[in-house]
Specification:
heterodimer; A: 494 residues; alpha+beta; eleven-stranded mixed sheet; 29% helix; B: 315 residues; mainly alpha; 14 helices; globular
Chain lengths: 494, 315
């Protein structure tokens, strides 16, 4: 039977049974992730695992990310922006209730945003709110945000999990008993094992297809494989064993989704530590790296090469990989020109993820080929934060920067790779103040070019989003523009 | 006897105090700030400072140590930095997985090891003995996590009899939980059983060479009767020692098995807490495990006295 006719038959069978099927479709789902969230309050920690469970499901913001990374209305149904770009007036949805039965209104928005940007706030992304000067509840359905200077990214910033709207009554206890406005309610958290959610019967938007959802946490890659194979799990978001993916692809019981994330994986160089303070050395390192070999060797082929700090799926992305193409001979010439004809020795600190540990070994070999010796130290994340990020005691390190649109970190000379460039800061300041889309694209692209021209870091690849699921699950996000598992979009095929 | 008990209890308390000091110092010395870890790379320094303040991390170390110890004595371990919930509750939840698992594995291991060891001793040098010895050699050599993976492959993936891992929770019923713990318990028990069977066998064989067994034989008992009536009881002391060590190991050392079967036990809690620099949780769980080991050893000492009248008399 040809592929075509089989599809045709199954299509007609589906059409035939669609009416009955809809009533019988499964309404529960078990989603596994590798990391367990430390708590369930997205406004009080940086752990992505928090957002993966609660963002869009339990908590919502004024705006939200869609599966393609674009910004859509959420709790705000519409908004207007004043001509000077300083005053945003949001019209809120009517009839929205928190899961504890209290009403959502403009005062909750004011409370949440004021709390996030307060002096003693413990919000991990406080910079999102930096330009907000005032939040006013005009009436229960209207909120006005006044900025101290125009911010073209405000609607984007408000879509983050760190900017969700919480109720004053429950804000303090969201870490263990989250209460939001979303399509799913928190039911139970068995720490170390799972979080249970159930459909919110009073949801203000379209009712989701699923009735219940369970998030399970399986950190061991072998256990992840077994759990999928044994059918214990319906979806594994961020599957940790890429080497097993071909096996799932070949099995008709499963589907494999390979998408893009916001994770720019970079070989960071300490721009203020010799010899990396010399742009020629940084350029030599960039040319010494064979990106494809790292993607194949460390990521089993999953990942897109990048030449600057920007996500390839973004329409404004520039492919600058040719500027730092793999050319060991050129790298050697440049090292000689920089005064290191015999190379040098430096340190490389590697955090736990496999992209860093496996990738680090490959990069060390590639650097050795041009005369650069590296002393590799494996560190835990907490140690990395202290030694690399905090005291900047390192030469090289490998990290994936997973925040969306985070090229702005290059404007901070204190940031761990210590890139100090006034022209770059000027571009970013202008970008923040610009709201015209065409002008923003132009500025974003010159920013990408500038850090590529300065060879600030070695740009390796964009981390892939790997999802393994049972074949009947539909509505999964292939890409991960933000850490999220949008349960409301998921349903079972009959 | 009473004096001996008091001495043992005093040494138990001193051990606990020393352990608490060592644990506190070692964990506090490790690099990494829990607040910085929680807030990630975009956090501003003043945000980290605000969180440190909220978590009470800026309190001097000596004061933190005293608070921790006095809390523990009253059964209050404090609040986890990252989970933001009381550590006593977290430990209690995890113990309801780890403790049954350890007991289950210990029972399985004993049920396998005792008959195997006794059988091998009674068949010394013959085929049965060699068979048991070969099997236990294999059991000692094979790492338990590898064995666990093979069990999962056969019973969960190919046969589909049980889940590949996870724990349903005791509210889902006793048998559901026992089913979930069976593969992990077998994986933990077999290597332990292999060691225990070898100790049982060699200890019995030592006894069989003793004068009192010869006397028993001379009285007209068969070798089997002498073994059951006289040698077994005397051979138990080294076996009990190993059993006590194994229980501590099963409670504290099942981290890897808990990872393979993604069980929400104590091992997993320690593992997560260490990577997140949840210092107070690490300290508390490790302290609890030390407490368990010390108490188990104390109980083993007491059983020696029960089994061996000479030890009782000496004290």
């Amino acid at each position: 039977m040809t592929h075509f006719s089989r599809n045709l038959i199954s299509a007609s069978v589906i059409a035939l049974f669609a009416g009955i099927g809809a009533a019988q479709a499964q309404t529960d789902i078990k989603i596994a992730m590798q990391l367990e969230p430390p708590n369930l309050d997205p406004t009080g920690g940086a752990a992505e695992a928090i957002d993966s469970v609660v963002y869009l499901n339990i908590f919502q913001g004024l705006t939200r990310f869609a599966s393609d990374g674009s910004i859509e209305p959420s709790l705000a149904e519409s908004w207007t922006i004043s001509d000077d770009g300083l005053v945003y007036t949001f019209k809120l949805h009517d009839g929205v209730m928190f899961h504890d039965g209290t009403t959502f209104d403009a005062e909750d928005v004011k409370f949440s945003l004021d709390r996030a940007r307060a002096e003693d706030s413990t919000n991990a992304q406080k910079q999102l709110f930096a330009q907000i000067a005032d939040v006013t509840a005009v009436d229960p359905q209207t909120v006005q945000i006044t900025l101290s200077q125009p911010n073209g990214a405000l609607l984007f910033n408000l879509a983050w999990g760190d900017a969700v709207i919480v109720a004053p009554e429950t804000a303090a206890t969201n870490a263990t008993a989250p209460v939001g406005t979303g399509p799913f309610k928190f039911v139970n958290w068995v720490q170390g094992d799972r979080v249970d959610l159930a459909r919110n019967p009073d949801y203000w938007g379209t009712a989701p297809a699923l009735e219940t959802a369970t998030f399970r946490f399986i950190s061991d890659p072998t256990a992840a494989f077994s759990a999928m194979m044994a059918g214990d799990i319906d979806v594994f978001a961020g599957f940790p064993a890429p080497e097993n993916l071909p096996q799932f692809e070949a099995d008709p019981r499963f589907q494999v989704l390979v998408g893009s994330t916001e994770g720019e994986t970079i070989l960071a160089m300490n721009n203020k530590q010799a010899p990396f303070d010399n742009v020629l050395v940084r350029q030599a390192v960039s040319h010494a790296i064979d990106r494809q070999a790292i993607i194949d060797g460390a990521m089993f082929g999953y990942g897109t090469p990048i030449g600057t700090h920007f996500a390839p799926h973004n329409p404004d992305y520039l492919d600058l990989t040719a500027q730092s193409s793999y050319d060991p001979e050129l790298a050697k010439t440049m090292l000689a020109e920089a005064g290191f004809p015999d190379g040098f020795t430096t340190t490389m600190k590697l955090p736990p993820p496999s992209y860093a540990r496996r990738g680090g070994e490959i990069i060390a070999a590639q650097l050795r080929a041009v005369g650069i010796e590296t002393e590799i130290t494996n560190v835990e994340w907490a140690q990395w934060l202290e030694e690399v990020f905090g005291t900047k005691n390192y030469g090289l390190t490998i990290v994936s920067h997973t925040e969306p649109f985070d090229i702005g970190i290059y404007a901070n000379p204190e940031y761990y790779f210590q890139y100090d460039s006034q022209p770059f800061r000027d571009i970013m300041a202008e970008l923040t103040a610009t709201t015209d889309p065409a002008k923003r694209t132009e500025l974003v692209q010159s920013a990408q070019r500038m850090i590529a021209d300065d060879y600030v870091n070695g740009y390796l690849f964009q981390l892939a989003a790997l999802t393994v699921a049972k074949a009947e699950v539909q509505g999964l996000w292939a890409n991960a523009p933000v850490a999220a598992n949008d349960l409301a979009a998921i349903s079972w095929k009959q | 006897m009473i004096a001996w008990l008091l001495r043992r209890i005093a040494s138990l308390i001193i051990s606990l105090i020393v352990a608490s000091l060592v644990i506190f110092m070692v964990v506090e010395v490790a690099p990494g700030d829990p607040a910085a870890f929680m807030l990630g790379v975009n956090a501003k320094p003043d945000t980290v400072a605000a969180l440190r303040d909220e978590l009470g991390l800026d309190v001097p170390k000596a004061e933190r140590y005293l608070n921790w110890v006095t809390g523990m004595v009253q059964g209050d371990f404090g609040t986890s930095y990252t989970y933001r919930s009381p550590i006593s509750d977290m430990i209690a939840d995890r113990l309801w997985v780890s403790l049954p698992l350890a007991v289950y594995a210990l029972i399985l291991s004993t049920l396998i090891a005792f008959p195997a060891g006794i059988y091998a001793a009674s068949r010394r040098g013959r085929a049965g003995d060699l068979g048991v010895m070969a099997a236990t050699q294999l059991g000692v050599a094979v790492p338990n996590f590898w064995f666990a993976m093979i069990l999962v492959l056969i019973f969960a993936i190919n046969l589909g009899w049980v889940s590949a891992g996870g724990f349903p929770g005791w509210d889902k019923g006793f048998w559901a939980c026992m089913a979930a713990l069976t593969l992990p318990a077998i994986a933990l028990a077999l290597p332990q059983a292999a060691i225990l069977a070898r100790v049982m066998r060699s200890s019995l064989l030592d006894m069989l060479g003793e004068d009192f067994i010869r006397t028993a034989r001379a009285k007209g008992l068969t070798e089997g009767q002498a073994l059951w009536r006289h040698a077994l009881k005397n051979a138990l002391i080294p076996v009990l020692t190993i059993l006590g060590l194994q229980f501590s190991f099963l409670l504290a050392g099942s981290i890897i098995i808990e990872q393979v079967f993604y069980l929400p036990g104590l091992g997993r809690l320690v593992f997560q807490a260490i990577t997140q620099r949840d210092l107070i949780t690490v300290e508390s769980v490790v302290m609890l495990l030390v407490f368990a080991v010390i108490v188990v050893n104390f109980l083993v000492d007491l059983t020696y006295a029960a089994v061996d009248p000479r030890l009782r008399a000496r004290h």
